[in-house]
C-alpha cells in the first residue's frame, strides 16, 4: 500500500475589501469579501516543506488590494477573472486558481451623495475558476429571503405510521434562496445579466401557484434558462422556512390562516439543478463549489 497526496489547493480566505469611488461629490461604495485559492505543482511543500513554489497567502491578499487600486473593481466577475488570470500567468508552478467573491449591498440614504445604509443580508456572488487559459464563471445570489402568504399548497404525499403533517390547500411559502448559475462563456454583460436573472426568479416565485417547493424551484430555474441564453445551468438550494398555524382553540378563537409560528429549525431543504440538454461541458466550473 502506498500513501499519496491527493487534490489540494491553498489561498487567502475572506479578504474584506471596501472601495470608495469618488466622482466629485458623488461617491459609490463596493463592499466585497474575496477568497483566493491556488493549485498546481505544490507537492513539495506538502511532502518536504519546500516552499519554493508557494506564493504566500499574504501576497495573495495584498494582490487583491493592489488590483482594487490599480483599476476600478467594476463587476465582481471581471475582478475575479483579472485576479485568477494574474495568479496563473505570473506563477510558473500555479496552473489553476479559484476566486470567490461575495458583494454586500449598500443603499444611498435619500439623495445624499456620500451616505449609505446597509441593505439586507442578501449577497451577490461569483466563483471564477481558471485552469491554464480556460475560465469558468458561476455567479449567483445567497440569502435572498422571500415569502408569499398564499398561492401555495402541499398535499397528496404518502402517509405512514409516523406521518402527522396535515395536508393544506393554502399555506405560507417562505425560503432563503441560494442560486448559482453557470455561464456558457465569459463575454457577458454581468450587471445586466444578474439584475434580470434575479428579477425573473422573484417574479416566478411570486406568480407560480405552487403545489410543492420542488415545483417552484424547477419553475424558477426553467424561467431563467428560457429567458437568458448566456446561462447553461441553474442550481438552487431552498430551505423551507416553515410557518405553522397556531392552535388558538384553547382560547375560544378560530385561526383562519392568520396567526403562525415561524420555526427556524428543523427545516425541509429542497435542492436541484436545471440545465439545457445541450449545455456545454461544465469543465471545472463546479469542482470547488458545493453541489448546490
Automatic annotation (TrEMBL):
Record keywords: Oxidoreductase, Purine metabolism
Enzyme Commission number(s) of this protein: 1.7.3.3
Keyword Oxidoreductase attached: yes
Binding-site positions, 5-hydroxyisourate: 57, 154, 171, 214, 240
Gene Ontology MF terms: urate oxidase activity
Binding locations of O2: 57, 240
GO BP annotation list: purine nucleobase metabolic process; urate catabolic process
Record field: catalytic activity: urate + O2 + H2O = 5-hydroxyisourate + H2O2
Active site: residue positions: 12 (charge relay system), 57 (charge relay system), 242 (charge relay system)
Sites where the protein binds urate: 57-58, 154, 171, 214, 240
Keyword flag Oxidoreductase: yes
Pathway: Purine metabolism; urate degradation; (S)-allantoin from urate: step 1/3
Top-tier EC class: oxidoreductase
Highest taxon above the source species: Bacteria
Primary role: Catalyzes the oxidation of uric acid to 5-hydroxyisourate, which is further processed to form (S)-allantoin.
Family assignment from sequence similarity: Belongs to the uricase family.
Protein name: Uricase
Organism (species): Lentzea aerocolonigenes
Amino acid at each position: 500500500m502506498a500513501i499519496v497526496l491527493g487534490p489540494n489547493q491553498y489561498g487567502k480566505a475572506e479578504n474584506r475589501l471596501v472601495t470608495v469611488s469618488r466622482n466629485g461629490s458623488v461617491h459609490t461604495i463596493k463592499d466585497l469579501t474575496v477568497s483566493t485559492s491556488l493549485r498546481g505543482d505544490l507537492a513539495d511543500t506538502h511532502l518536504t516543506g519546500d516552499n519554493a513554489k508557494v506564493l504566500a497567502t499574504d501576497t495573495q491578499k495584498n494582490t487583491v488590494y493592489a488590483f482594487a487600486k490599480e483599476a476600478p473593481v467594476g463587476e465582481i466577475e471581471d475582478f475575479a477573472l483579472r485576479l485568477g488570470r494574474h495568479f496563473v500567468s505570473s506563477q510558473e508552478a500555479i496552473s489553476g486558481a479559484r476566486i470567490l467573491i461575495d458583494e454586500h449591498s449598500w443603499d444611498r440614504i435619500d439623495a445624499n451623495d456620500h451616505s449609505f445604509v446597509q441593505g439586507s443580508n442578501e449577497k451577490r456572488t461569483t466563483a471564477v475558476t481558471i485552469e491554464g487559459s480556460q475560465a469558468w464563471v458561476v455567479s449567483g445570489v445567497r440569502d435572498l429571503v422571500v415569502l408569499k402568504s398564499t398561492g401555495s399548497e402541499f398535499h397528496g404525499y404518502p402517509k405512514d405510521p409516523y406521518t402527522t403533517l396535515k395536508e393544506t390547500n393554502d399555506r405560507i411559502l417562505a425560503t432563503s434562496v441560494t442560486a448559482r448559475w453557470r455561464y456558457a462563456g465569459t463575454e457577458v454583460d454581468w450587471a445586466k445579466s444578474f439584475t434580470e436573472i434575479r428579477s425573473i426568479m422573484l417574479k416566478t416565485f411570486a406568480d407560480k401557484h405552487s403545489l410543492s417547493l420542488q415545483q417552484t424551484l424547477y419553475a424558477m430555474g426553467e424561467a431563467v434558462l428560457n429567458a437568458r441564453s448566456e446561462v447553461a445551468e441553474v442550481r438552487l438550494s431552498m430551505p423551507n422556512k416553515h410557518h405553522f398555524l397556531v392552535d388558538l382553540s384553547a382560547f375560544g378563537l378560530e385561526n383562519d390562516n392568520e396567526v403562525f409560528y415561524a420555526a427556524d429549525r428543523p427545516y425541509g431543504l429542497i435542492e436541484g439543478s436545471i440545465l439545457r440538454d445541450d449545455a456545454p461541458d461544465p469543465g471545472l466550473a463546479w469542482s470547488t463549489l458545493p453541489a448546490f
